[in-house]
């Protein structure tokens, strides 16, 4: 059991930075704050960066599939074409609430944000607990740094 707890400790500390990032960026995306429509104007660059990394696993300027125009770009769009980039045919972000019909997405969106806040809080508490354990502190710090640096390096590859 001791080895299992130790493994859980190190895996948790290593993954904590990614958990924090994806929980926060997921909460931001829930209300589309990284998009002009969700923010009410041009969103802050940090939100655009976060949502781009979360959704596309790429930096905002590093989207090769968007850089080159598609061969049929000159053709007029058919009625059912999706132009908002989310590839689900949803133009306003509310899948079942178009024109006031169907259930409202707001309660679930609120729950998702509460879930993200709970995950962030739990992760921060876990990091605090990990770093207060003197016997494992040095290795925990190394794992925390590695869990921060490795995804950033992979993003740039």
Report on the architecture of this protein.
With 157 residues, this protein is an all-alpha fold. 61% of the residues lie in helices and 0% in strands. It is globular and about 55 Å long. It starts with a helix and ends with a helix.
Overall geometry: globular
Sheet/helix structural class: mainly alpha
Average pLDDT reading: 81
Main sheet attributes: strand count, strand direction, barrel closure = none
Strand content: under 5%
Question: In terms of per-residue confidence, which ranges show pLDDT below 50 for 5 or more consecutive residues?
Answer: 62-96
Total tally of structural domains: 1
* Helix content class: 55-70%
Radius of gyration: 20 Å
What is the ordering of alpha helices and beta strands?
Answer: HHHHHH
Count of DSSP H/I helices:
6
Number of strands: 0
Characterize this entry briefly.
By secondary structure, the chain is mainly α. The protein has 6 helices and no strands.
What's the arrangement of secondary structure elements?
Blueprint: H1 2-30, H2 36-39, H3 45-56, H4 64-67, H5 106-132, H6 137-156
Keywords:
157 residues, mainly alpha, 6 helices, 0% strand
């Amino acid at each position: 059991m001791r080895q299992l707890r130790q493994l859980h400790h190190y895996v948790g500390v290593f993954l904590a930075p990614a958990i924090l990032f994806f929980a926060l960026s997921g909460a931001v995306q829930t209300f589309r704050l990284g998009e002009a429509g969700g923010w009410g104007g041009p969103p802050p660059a940090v939100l655009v960066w976060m949502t781009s990394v979360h959704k596309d696993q790429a930096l905002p300027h590093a989207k090769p599939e968007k850089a080159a125009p598609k061969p049929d770009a000159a053709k007029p769009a058919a009625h059912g074409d999706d132009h908002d980039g989310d590839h689900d045919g949803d133009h306003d972000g509310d899948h079942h609430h178009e024109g006031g019909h169907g259930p409202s997405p707001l309660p679930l969106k609120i729950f998702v944000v509460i879930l993200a806040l709970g995950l962030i809080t739990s992760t921060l508490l876990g990091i605090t607990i990990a770093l207060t354990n003197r016997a494992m502190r040095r290795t925990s710090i190394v794992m925390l740094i590695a869990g921060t640096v490795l995804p950033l390096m992979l993003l740039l590859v």
